[in-house]
């Protein structure tokens, strides 16, 4: 894939958090478009199952089981994928973590875990892939952010702040790498019923003293201006568009794929 060629071709890709949720949908979708996929996750068992789904498209798939929050987690994953494929065209920084805590009960442990994955690992992944792509003169990085980054969420502050950092890193990376043919954009998904979302909404219901969890979830869904939640496969189409199809003049952009959730 070469920026400026006006056409996109299947390429070599790396997706973090590829074992489940949105990351799995993105990996499967990229494979279906003919891309080689390096799938990175801490959950080796779920990753193996997701990798099988990608292999059904007949593409090269590698599984990288790692904790991205370790010092060499993100850069090591980039290195392994370059060794396997010869080069890397696309990085999708999707892995994320969030936990619910009331503002006045926030803990150091929750902040550390959230920032280590959502901010540090993502930034170091951008740096390592950016260096490689810069040398090649092409590449695309897509960071998964959240509507939360622009909302006041007193029970979800560490997560919201971490995603505001993702937005800052996306813009900085886009400017740093623009002269070298590398594009950096982000996508903000709406509410998807993934393992992470199920856990955090159960925590939110408990914090609000709500035992009628189904009614609580329905109220939250009703707050989405489009009036429904969104499937991972649907959001993955947006990520894949940024990765393979978006015009190369687009960089530093945030694609809102949230049904108007943050009302902006
Ligand atoms: N689910 C939503 O409603 C929603 C909304 C907006 C944004 N997002 C964002 O979308 C992205 C994907 O979220 P999801 O809902 O699919 O989450 P998920 O929890 O279902 O999947 C995240 C994946 O990341 C992996 N992971 C977690 N910690 C890791 C680590 N330290 N090292 C390597 N892998 C690790 C998990 O094993 C899992 O497979 C995240 O960045 C999330 O913040 C989700």
From TrEMBL:
Coiled-coil region list: none
A Pfam family recorded for this sequence: adh_short
PROSITE patterns xref list: ADH_SHORT
Keyword Oxidoreductase listed: yes
Keywords, in A-Z order: Oxidoreductase
InterPro entries for the chain: NAD(P)-bd_dom_sf, Sc_DH/Rdtase_CS, SDR_fam
Family: Belongs to the short-chain dehydrogenases/reductases (SDR) family.
Protein name as catalogued: SDR family oxidoreductase
UniProt source species: Microvirga puerhi
């Amino acid at each position: 894939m070469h920026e400026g060629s006006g056409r996109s071709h299947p390429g070599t890709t790396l997706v973090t958090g590829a074992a489940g949720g949105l990351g799995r949908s993105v990996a499967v979708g990229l494979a279906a478009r003919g891309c080689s996929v390096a799938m990175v996750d801490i959950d080796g068992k779920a990753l193996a199952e997701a990798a099988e789904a990608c292999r059904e498209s007949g593409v090269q798939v590698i599984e990288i089981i790692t904790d991205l929050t370790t010092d060499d987690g993100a850069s090591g994953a980039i290195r392994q994928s370059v060794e396997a494929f010869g080069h890397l065209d696309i990085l999708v920084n999707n892995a994320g973590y969030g936990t619910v805590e009331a503002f006045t009960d926030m803990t150091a442990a929750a902040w550390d875990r959230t920032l280590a994955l959502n901010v540090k690992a993502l930034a170091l992944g951008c740096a390592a892939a950016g260096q490689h792509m810069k040398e090649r003169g092409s590449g695309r990085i897509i960071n998964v952010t959240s509507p939360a980054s622009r909302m006041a969420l007193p029970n979800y502050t560490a997560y919201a702040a971490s995603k505001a950092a993702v937005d800052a890193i996306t813009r900085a990376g886009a400017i740093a790498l623009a002269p070298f043919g590398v594009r950096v954009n982000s996508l903000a998904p709406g509410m998807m019923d993934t393992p992470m979302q199920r856990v955090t909404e159960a925590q939110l219901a408990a914090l609000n003293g709500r035992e009628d969890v189904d009614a609580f979830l329905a109220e939250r869904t009703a707050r989405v201006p489009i009036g429904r939640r969104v499937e991972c496969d649907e959001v993955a189409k947006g990520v894949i568009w940024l990765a393979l199809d978006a015009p190369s003049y687009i960089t530093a952009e945030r694609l809102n794929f949230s049904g108007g959730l943050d009302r902006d």
